[in-house]
Amino acid sequence: MLLLLLALWGCSDGQAPGPSRECDRRSTLAAEEIVECLYGAALLGADDAAVALDELSAARRIADSLHGTGVYDDLLRARFVLRSLQHLADLYDEGARDSARLHRWLDHVAVSADFVRGNLAQEPDGYWTTGRTPHIAWVHLPNVGIFADPVGTVTRILGPGPASLQAPLDALEDAGEAVWRYGVPMSAVSTAPVWELHYPAIACTIFLLPPRRSAAAQTAALRLFTELARRTGAPQWVARAEALLPSFEASWAEGGVRVPGRTGAWWEEADPRVGYWRSAAAAAIAVADLAALTSGERALQLAADGILAARTLAPSFDDGLWTRDCLAGGYQDRDNHALYIRLARALHERTGDDFWLDLALRWEGFSPPPGFVMGDPRS
Amino acid sequence: MRSLPLLLLLAAAACASEPTAGTDADSDCAPGLERSALATLECAASAGLLTPSQLDQAAEVLLRAEAAIDSLEGPMGGADDQYYRASWIRSALGNFAAFHVRGALTDSARIARLVDVVAVNTGFATGGLPVAGERVFPSRTPHLTWVFYPSIGVYFQPVTTIENAIGIPFPDPAVATDTLLAIGNALWQYATWRSGAAGAFPVWEYDFNFLSDVQKRAPWISSLAQGEALKLYVELYRRTGDAVQAERAHQVFRSFRTFWSDGGILVDDTTHGYWWDEYDPRMWTWNGSMAALVAVGMYAETFGGDAVGIAARGQDAARYWTPSFDTGEWTTYSLLAGYVTVAYQRWHTMLAGALHDQTGDPFWSETASRWAAYEPPPGLLQPPMLPNEAARLPHIESLLDRAR
């Protein structure tokens, strides 16, 4: 059908056909129909649409060939690919639709097909890499799929933060270019880049379905660009870092990561109903680092707002025995507790405010509470 | 690293405002996940979805929930179990904003269901509800069974409610009619309603997000739930001859006449017949869809008319697709998933037998015989299960034993 549409379009005045009401059929559109819908809504060019259909067709051929072997493991591989096609439809159903997002979704399909054929390399740190998206790390979630991980892409180079490891500059630049290209526009009215997560998660009892957005992803990209700006002095990295700031200013409903209605600027990792201090504090530090580098008024104000929010809500994550994972959840493991301490110390370093030093010392004095189970899978 | 301009701004912020409690979301009622449950309900009331009295009653439930959270999170005592329990209540409270953002906070019935979720999770978290395994029986919703899903909380489960009483795959004649009537009446009161080309029909929605091979965002419906309800009302009509039960069955059956894209459970692609899917038209789950087909068969046997042809089209699709779930060694859960557990293999075999009992079609007896002869494939592990299925498994095993 699309080929016919494309042919007709070629004979017309160049106007793509209008979107069809059929394109609103939730849960019932095939991946190929979604491409047609995006094309029909003029969200995708003819060339892009043709390429997308080719890629979907290739994925289906791989699934068919695996299905035909009669070997159970191949059946599972075939269904792994088919599920990736359904994920595309899941993402389409959730609303945000444009060519950039379609390309990210197609990456998921193509990488899934490569994964089942053994064409990906697994790195020693567990991440998977692919020539299709060089320098972007992928994570395999058993029984769910394989997904690009923008946060892991950065932390495997710079460390979990807040301090950054001394990574080789060329590796940083490669990652910086790749991450920049992997962003998608925040909304229909803002081209500020955001890095969406395409896999589900349960965040402190809130079951989150993709596409998800996260202050952790925005912070990872900001850390990377700021570090590149610091090390190279190149204006393009400053510009890219500053290009993220609208996502820290915009509310969750506007496509950003800021939760309105809280004192200061609270930047949320998972969902406004959850509340992760670690991400809010890490984001404040990343914005402050950019502000320190550029002295830009916008970043300075945002950093002050972010630090204020982290300061205001810090007591809610501390019950006198141990620190809490999130506002809606329970205790966290030792690694995250140690991260809190590093974040508090980093905030002290940047602000000189003894509140943070006192907090770090207080948390350092905590012992795991009796009966505390490490690595509790519930959250 | 320290920045002088930043320090000045921080000092100004500190002078201007000591940290204070944040204000709630804006007052224009634009959907927002950050909006509190009460503020969201006030928006619903201002939109005419709730009366002042309904709002007051809901607010009381929310206040009790907040108090329970405070009580659970207050004294710790050295374990984080209280936080975990409080998180179920917080999650339940968060449903209002999530439904609002999704455009799903559209009628008072659905809002009432979400208020029940808050009340039941509050009772469960504070240890005040009767439980049996994963099943929970709140007095707030008599005769209806709720299920505890780890990491999510407690939610109403229509399938567990009905199956446990009526039996599988066919109604158990030993179950007292009074029991079924009580459940049927309670379930009817608990329906929410949709409209499609076939008219208005009741549905029993699941109010939690769910990940299977595809993702389901609450509220979602299932052919298994609709099928069990259909089975219940057909059975009640058969036993009582009461026209009320017949009418209820007819109204439930409208969901089987309504395409998925129109809010029903009939998969839009009818190339090979009619398929009513348990979860999603992109998933094709065998067990729930076949249980629904058994219910359609019962309805057609009882009421005739065009339902006979509809059931026949259901048989067409079932015969066409069933081989795709059969590797020759074992059966798969869906067209997107791998092998089922041993218990589900028994359930699949029982359903194939039931379809033979209903139709006399040798396809089903051959299928049932073949599946019964399968040995678990070497290395078959307990496959990772969907949360919904994992919670249902012990229940299914006991039902299978009861039906044997």
Report on this model:
The complex is a heterodimer of chains A (379) and B (404). Chain A is globular and about 65 Å long. In chain A, the strands form 5 sheets. In chain A, strands 1-2 form a two-stranded antiparallel ribbon. Chain A has a two-stranded antiparallel sheet with strand order 3-4. Chain A has a two-stranded antiparallel ribbon with strand order 5-6. The longest helix of chain A is centred in the N-terminal third of the chain and has 22 residues, at 46-67. In chain A, helix 7 crosses helix 8. In chain A, a hairpin with a 2-residue loop joins strand 7 (201-203) and strand 8. Chain A is mainly α and 379 residues long. Chain A contains 14 helices and 10 strands. The N and C termini of chain A lie far apart (46 Å). Chain B is α+β, with helices and mostly antiparallel strands and 404 residues long. Chain B has 14 helices and 8 strands. Chain B has helices at 4-16, 37-46, 52-73, 81-101, 108-125, 158-166, 177-189, 223-240, 243-257, 286-303, 306-321, 342-359, 362-373, 387-403; strands at 131-132, 135-136, 146-149, 153-156, 192-196, 199-203, 210-211, 215-216. In chain B, strands 1-2-3-4 form a 4-stranded antiparallel β-sheet. The longest helix of chain B is centred in the N-terminal third of the chain and has 22 residues, at 52-73. Chain B starts with a helix and ends with a helix. Residues 16-25 of chain B have low confidence and may be disordered. The chains are: A mainly alpha (379), B alpha+beta (404). At the A-B interface, helix 4, strand 8, helix 11, helix 12 and helix 13 of A face helix 1, helix 4 and strand 7 of B.
